[in-house]
Structures are given as structure tokens and as C-alpha cells.
């Protein structure tokens, strides 16, 4: 913990708050019927994406999930282009062709959010293979949920990554639910990190709501991968504040448990830490909050004022020339 | 020109492309020292150290990793030992590779080749004999190639590897040992160009892959009986050379389509639909499809012979038009 500086913690705070405010706004817009499609919110899990991506550059790749907004923001995605994509506008990351579940920017190393649970796992392995083949010192990070570790893609991806000793870090965001199904009903182990044993790679379980812990753990795994020491699996225990998708009230969650986890909100935790360490006063945090709210509001205005894609372009980009 | 087998021509196509582009690599089950289940990659493991990789029996990881590697700048050529195994890794191909570019607003490219052998006639039964090319032609974003001769196999392999899109390169097990003259060195056949393998004036027979040879044999027999058949080899199904088909039908006014796949929802139906929509006035007779039966491929050789299209069935189909 001691390695994390004031500047880093404040950076983490800004990133986490950007994610939270983006998601709060998306929830509000969706409830008001102003966003098409599906929206899966990352609120409550911000410390994971933020802590992991802090050690990545644009040369490093990530694969994301249907719950991808947080990963994209933490990896450097611009909130205006993301919001425009949620609105299906031509100024969005995918020109309005992908939507929330498919936002990507290969230049930023983002190989896409994904509408198929577990599909990012072999893709991240392939990007890691490219890094190894091209000897460019870059790594790949694969984000996925507890339920995605039940898929066959998980097994095949981790096995191949291990056999080929690839620079890839598998980050399991264990938010305890696969849609409505509690982890205790969808697997017979408590810690997903135990699955690493089957592949002969390191596996560790950490508090996914402690951004400093996520940062330190991921930094070590990323550094090992860069040195050619192979893949690892990090399980971050966390909690999704909302339901599976916006509109799911999450009635399958235990009310008391929900309340306890809300008290462990990663952003509240970080605010406490910043204040205890005297890195920031309430007034300074408030200033940051207002500044970020301004960015999110500007992103919504940008999205709303942007044109829709032209029907004449509907056939473009099916194939590369 | 050099005489080589279809398998050697595929290998030569890969070899030449690997020599000219260091980002081309091969991965798949037993493709390394073992040289591939059908020997297609034999010798490449030693010739290109570190660029011919054996994988676990893990089709999802083979195709899935290729998607990521291609998006990250490499040009993977992966082998799926039998096309029948594509069901194991279909999401990686049809929801990931095929859709990435479009979904991402044109910002990604996925230059990958999936090599895989199809086809029956080997008493390999229901899970090792199928022709499922229509699965891939039904998915926008993928190109589908089915060469029928050694020279085409080489030239189309070069084009597949150089293409910036996911390409299904479908070989045929019956053709691997077939010999033919093949151009040496760099040789590229553009995708989307059909080839008239035999000129004729009375009927057009459209075929591809192994069935092209059945069509040619039928055309030989028909010629003896006074019917001049033009045999069009599609070579690539997507993109499709519609012009070549329509021009041939404009000349002959009759069309038979031969497809080794089962009949229902097969690619022969697509050809027939296109010609009816765009060339109805050219036709003097109904279009006839010669296809396999709508059943799983049977093991017993006599049953499999009933299942498969053959020269006799093609000849009968052609004669029914006169």
C-alpha cells in the first residue's frame, strides 16, 4: 500500500468518479427512455478497472464485457464518444453501429466490450500472443465476471495462455451474480482464483473494492507478464450496485447483503482514505466531483447534439478493403 | 510451372506468404512436427522456427486466439482439423471475427485464415464428412473459398492470407492428393473470380470443390451424347462472381447447380435464387439442383454413395432439361 502516492490516489479517485457519474447518468437516461438498446452498469466495481488499468499503456490490450463502460474509461476512453455511442450517434466510438455492448478503440488497446459472456478470454490470449510474437513488451488484460469463469472459453483460454506462457492477466470481477444466479448456486467453490491451480498459473483473491490493493496486485502480475513470466489470475471480490441490466431491480439479492456492500462502496472507501491520509479535504473532493459532473453533462450534450448515422452508410465497413 | 499435389500447393501458398510477411504464422492441432493430420503443413515447422505452433485440442482457443492476434496486427493461418469441428468454435468466428469491423465502426481489421478440410466419400461418417460452407456464407463479414485444383489452391491461399478479413479456406479431403501444374513463386488469384473450367453452349453446370470434378466428368460423358456443357467453378462463394454465372446462363439458357452439401438451405439454393431473380428471362428450363440427401452422412460406403451427388445424378439432371 505504501507505494501508492497521493497523486496516484487522486487520479484513481477521478477515474472512479468519472465511471460512477457516467453510469449514474446512463441509468437516468435509460430510465427516461432516452437510450436505445441494453445498458449494463458497472457501479460498485470501479476500483477493479481503475486499479488494473493504472499500470497499462495504450500499447497494452484489454478485452471487456457487456458491463464494459468502466473498463473503457479506465483505459482512456473519452466519455463524450462513449455517450454518443450509447445514443447510437455517428460521433460515437462505433459510429452508432455497436452500442453500449460493443464499444471499442483498437488505438487505445481496447479490443471491445462484448455481448457474449466469456468471449473476450480467447481474444485477450490472442492479443497476448501477438505481443509475445512481436516482442513488444506489451501485455493483455482480460476482464470477466464470476459466471464467465464457468464457460468453456475460460478453460481453453487459460490453458493455452499457460502452455504458451503468454503475457496476459485474467481479472475476474466477482460481483457474486451471473445475471440473477448467486455464485453459491453456479459454482461449488468460494474463490474463483482456485481455478488457476488447474492451469499451473498463479491465482490470488483480493478485495476488489480497495483500489490500492487492486493496483498493487495487478502491477505485480503485469510486471511478471512483461518480463515473460507468464499469465496470472486475479479475482477481485466486489458487488454490483444495480441489477444485471438497467431495469432489473435485483430482487434476487439479499437486502441486508446489499446494504452491507453499499457501505463498502469503493468510492466511499477511497474518500475516507484520502481524508484520513490528509491527501484531500472535503472541499477539494467536492471540486473534483463538480468538475467531473460537468464533463459528463457536456458528454450528454455532445451526444444529443450529434447526428445519427446516415442510412446511405449502412453497408460500409462490413469488409475491410 | 511445377507439378504438385493440391496439399503441396496449399503448403507452397502458405510458404511463399510466410517468406514475404513475417507476421504470418500457423497454429493448430498437430500442425508442427507432425505436419498436420493430412500432412498439409509438413516441413514448415523446421523451415519457419517459432512460426508454426502446435495447440492443445482446443478449437475455441485456436480460432478465438486468432481473432485477438489478428486484431493486434498478426496474420494467423489456423487449421481446424475437420470442418465438422467448427461447431466447437463457431462463436469465435461468427460473433467475434465476422462482426468486429462493422460493430467497431470500421476501426478494426481481422486478417485471419481458417483452413479446414470438408467433404465425404471416405467412409468417415457423420462427424468427419460434412460440407457446411453455407454456415459461413450466411454470415456477413466472412469470406469463403473452396478451391478445386492445385493451382487454384495456391493462388487462393495467397489471396486469403493477404486479405484483411476473416477467410474460411475450405479444402477437400478427396482433392489433397490430386496433382496438377502450379505456378512457382508468388501467385495470387483475386477472390470473387469464378473460372470456366470447360466451355460449352447447351447447359451451364455450376460447381465447386470436389463436385467440380464430378461436373467435368459428367460433361465429358454428355459431350459424347451430343450435349455441350459449360462448367463454371465458383472458387470463392463469398464474394460471389454473379456476373460469370449469369453470362454463362445467358449463353446456354439452362442451369444445373451441383453441391455436395445437404439440400435444404444449401448454397446451391442461393445460386438458383440469384439466377431466378436476376436472369429469369435467360432461362429456357427450370433450374435443377444436384445435392446430397437431407440426412447425416452415413458410414456404410453403399449408403454414403446414395447420399452423395455423382456423375450419374448430374447427367440425369442435365438431361431432364431437354
Question: How are the secondary structure elements laid out?
Answer:
The complex is a heterodimer of chains A (about 325) and B (about 325).
Chain A: H1 6-31, H2 46-53, E1 61-63, H3 69-74, H4 79-86, H5 120-133, E2 140-145, H6 152-163, E3 168-174, E4 177-178, E5 181-182, H7 183-186, E6 203-207, H8 211-226, E7 232-237, H9 255-263, H10 266-276, H11 282-305
Parallel strand pairs in A: 1-2, 2-3, 3-7, 6-7
Antiparallel strand pairs in A: 4-5
Helix pairs in contact in A: 1-2, 1-10, 1-11, 2-8, 4-11, 5-6
Chain B: E1 2-5, H1 6-20, E2 24-28, H2 44-47, E3 52-54, H3 59-71, E4 75-79, H4 90-97, H5 100-103, E5 113-118, H6 133-137, E6 143-145, H7 150-162, E7 167-172, E8 179-182, E9 195-198, E10 203-207, H8 210-224, E11 229-233, E12 236-238, H9 242-252, E13 255-262, H10 267-279, E14 288-292, H11 301-307, H12 311-319
Parallel strand pairs in B: 2-3, 2-4, 4-5, 5-7, 6-7, 10-11, 10-13, 13-14
Antiparallel strand pairs in B: 1-8, 6-12, 9-11
Helix pairs in contact in B: 1-7, 3-4, 8-12, 9-10
The most extensive interface between chains reads: A-B, 48 and 44 residues
Give a quick account of the main beta sheet of chain B: strands, pairing sense, barrel closure.
7 strands, mixed
CATH architecture of chain A: 3-Layer(aba) Sandwich
The CATH topology name of chain A reads Rossmann fold
Oligomer: heterodimer
- From the helix content, strand content and strand pairing of chain A, which structural class follows? alpha/beta
Can you tell me the number of structural domains of chain B? 2
CATH C-level label of the largest domain in chain B: Alpha Beta
Mass-distribution shape of chain B: globular
Main β-sheet, spatial strand arrangement of chain B = 3-2-4-5-7-6-12
Q: Mind telling me which CATH architecture of the largest domain in chain B this is? A: 3-Layer(aba) Sandwich
Strand content of chain A: 5-15%
Task: Please tell me the total number of domains of chain A.
Answer: 1
Cross-sheet strand order for the largest sheet of chain A: 1-2-3-7-6
Give the H and E element order of chain A. Answer: HHEHHHEHEEEHEHEHHH
Main sheet overview of chain A: 5 strands, parallel
What coarse outline of chain A follows from CA principal-axis ratios?
globular
User: Which range best describes the helical content of chain A: under 10%, 10-25%, 25-40%, 40-55%, 55-70% or over 70%?
Assistant: 40-55%
SSE string of chain B: EHEHEHEHHEHEHEEEEHEEHEHEHH
Amino acid at each position: 500500500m505504501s507505494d501508492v502516492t497521493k497523486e496516484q490516489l487522486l487520479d484513481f479517485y477521478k477515474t472512479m468518479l468519472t465511471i460512477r457519474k457516467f453510469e449514474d447518468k446512463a441509468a437516468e437516461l435509460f430510465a427516461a427512455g432516452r437510450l436505445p438498446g441494453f445498458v449494463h452498469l458497472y457501479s460498485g466495481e470501479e476500483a477493479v478497472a481503475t486499479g488494473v488499468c493504472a499500470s497499462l499503456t495504450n500499447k497494452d490490450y484489454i478485452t471487456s464485457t457487456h458491463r464494459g463502460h468502466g473498463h473503457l474509461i479506465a483505459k482512456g476512453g473519452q466519455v463524450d464518444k462513449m455517450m454518443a455511442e450509447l445514443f447510437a450517434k455517428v460521433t460515437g466510438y462505433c459510429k452508432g453501429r455497436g452500442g453500449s455492448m460493443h464499444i471499442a478503440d483498437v488505438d487505445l488497446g481496447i479490443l471491445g466490450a462484448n455481448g457474449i459472456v466469456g468471449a473476450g478470454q480467447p481474444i485477450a490470449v490472442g492479443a497476448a500472443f501477438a505481443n509475445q510474437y512481436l516482442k513488444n513488451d506489451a501485455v493483455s488484460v482480460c476482464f470477466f465476471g464470476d459466471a464467465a469463469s464457468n464457460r468453456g472459453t475460460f478453460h481453453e483460454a487459460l490453458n493455452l495462455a499457460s502452455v504458451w506462457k503468454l503475457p496476459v492477466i485474467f481479472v475476474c470481477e466477482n460481483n457474486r451474480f451471473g445475471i440473477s444466479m448467486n455464485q453459491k448456486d453456479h459454482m461449488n467453490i468460494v474463490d474463483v482464483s482456485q481455478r488457476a491451480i488447474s492451469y499451473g498459473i498463479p491465482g490470488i483473491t483480493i478485495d476488489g473494492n480497495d483500489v490500492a490493493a487492486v493496483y498493487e496486485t495487478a502491477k505485480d502480475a503485469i510486471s511478471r507478464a512483461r518480463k515473460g513470466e507468464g499469465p496470472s489470475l486475479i479475482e477481485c471480490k466486489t458487488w454490483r450496485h444495480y441489477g444485471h441490466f438497467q431495469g432489473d431491480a435485483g430482487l434476487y439479492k439479499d437486502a441486508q447483503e446489499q446494504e452491507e456492500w453499499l457501505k463498502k462502496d469503493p468510492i466511499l472507501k477511497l474518500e475516507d482514505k484520502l481524508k484520513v491520509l490528509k491527501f484531500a479535504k472535503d472541499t477539494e473532493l467536492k471540486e473534483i466531483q463538480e468538475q467531473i459532473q460537468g464533463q459528463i453533462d457536456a458528454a450528454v450534450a455532445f451526444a444529443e447534439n450529434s447526428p445519427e448515422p446516415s442510412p446511405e452508410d449502412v453497408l460500409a465497413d462490413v469488409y475491410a478493403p | 510451372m511445377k507439378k504438385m499435389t493440391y496439399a503441396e500447393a496449399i503448403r507452397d501458398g502458405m510458404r511463399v506468404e510466410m517468406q514475404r510477411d513475417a507476421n504470418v504464422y500457423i497454429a493448430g492441432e498437430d500442425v508442427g512436427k507432425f505436419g498436420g493430420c493430412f500432412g498439409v503443413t509438413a516441413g514448415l515447422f523446421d523451415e519457419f522456427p517459432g512460426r508454426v505452433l502446435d495447440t492443445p485440442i482446443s478449437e475455441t482457443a485456436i480460432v478465438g486466439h486468432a481473432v485477438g492476434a489478428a486484431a493486434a496486427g498478426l496474420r494467423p493461418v489456423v487449421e481446424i482439423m475437420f470442418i465438422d469441428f467448427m461447431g466447437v468454435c463457431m462463436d469465435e468466428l461468427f460473433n467475434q471475427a465476422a462482426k468486429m469491423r462493422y460493430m467497431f465502426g470500421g476501426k478494426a481489421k481481422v486478417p485471419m485464415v481458417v483452413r479446414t478440410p470438408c467433404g465425404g466419400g471416405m467412409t468417415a461418417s457423420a462427424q468427419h464428412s460434412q460440407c457446411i460452407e453455407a454456415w459461413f456464407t450466411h454470415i456477413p463479414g466472412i469470406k469463403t473459398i473452396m478451391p478445386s485444383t492445385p493451382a487454384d489452391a495456391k493462388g487462393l491461399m495467397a489471396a486469403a492470407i493477404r486479405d484483411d478479413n476473416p477467410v474460411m479456406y475450405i479444402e477437400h479431403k478427396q482433392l489433397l492428393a490430386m496433382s496438377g501444374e502450379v505456378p512457382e513463386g508468388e501467385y495470387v488469384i483475386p477472390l470473387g473470380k469464378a473460372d470456366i473450367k470447360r466451355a460449352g453452349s447447351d447447359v451451364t453446370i455450376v460447381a465447386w470443390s470436389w463436385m467440380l470434378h464430378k461436373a467435368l466428368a459428367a460433361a465429358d460423358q454428355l459431350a459424347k451424347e451430343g450435349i455441350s456443357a459449360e462448367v463454371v467453378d465458383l472458387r470463392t462463394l463469398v464474394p460471389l462472381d454473379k456476373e460469370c454465372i449469369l453470362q454463362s446462363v445467358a449463353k446456354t439458357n439452362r442451369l444445373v447447380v451441383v453441391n455436395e452439401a445437404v439440400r435444404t438451405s444449401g448454397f446451391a439454393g442461393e445460386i438458383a435464387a440469384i439466377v431466378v431473380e436476376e436472369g429469369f428471362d435467360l432461362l429456357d428450363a427450370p433450374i435443377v439442383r444436384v445435392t446430397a440427401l437431407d440426412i447425416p452422412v452415413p458410414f456404410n460406403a453403399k449408403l454414403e454413395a446414395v447420399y452423395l451427388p455423382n456423375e450419374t445424378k448430374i447427367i440425369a439432371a442435365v438431361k431432364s432439361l431437354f
